[in-house]
Please model this.
Amino acid sequence: MPKITQSFFARPTLIVAKLLIGKELVCNNKSVIITETEAYVGEGDPACHAAKGRTKRNDVMFGEAGLVYVYLIYGMYYCLNIVTEEGGYPAAVLIRGGVDLGNISQKLDGPGKLCRYLNIDKNYNYLDCTSSPELFFNDSNYKLPVNQTPRIGISQGLDKLWRYVVPKEALSEIAILGNKKYV
DNA sequence: ACCCCGATCGTA
DNA sequence: ACGATCGGGGTT
Model:
């Protein structure tokens, strides 16, 4: 299963967000099939952390595609993002959910839960997921159905359908290993 | 120095 | 419906 390279992330954020669904995220000796993502796109996106320009926190979003952006939310949870598009353009995909095929009982339906499960914290900020052995993506061949909805937990930019999520019905079927329907 | 609030989650 | 918990960013 080939590792996803930089050119995958150096594309329009909506494309990357959608294509990451069904890909495998590997970190800390665990792997997860991604089932939910969101796109945050540039200074013109009011929900994007870079909406008000460059700051210490969002600095990494202005970096090269493939960099990891981790931030602390509500004082207790971390959220994992991958920087997209060309260097200098602040955009990223938030990884919001997944399933561990080797540990189906886990409910990784939320960015905070996902990071907690994979032990991802602020130390991963600025890591390059296209060259790091610590955190990377594999180009798995799962063909999962994807719905588009408004993004969760924001108060602006709700007009955009920039959340990509595998519907619940399909999610329960993924649990059945060897389900050819999605491979 | 102070104040506000958030790309969340678990419990009630 | 609400509280936990804290760092970033804007304001005084």
Q: What stands out?
A: The beta strands of chain A are 24-27, 30-41, 68-73, 77-83, 91-99, 108-109, 135-138, 147-149, 163-165. Helices of chain A lie at 6-9, 13-19, 111-118, 168-174. Chain A has four helices and nine strands. Residues 52, 55-57, 71-72, 74-76 of chain A lie near DNA strand C (CB under 10 Å from a C1').
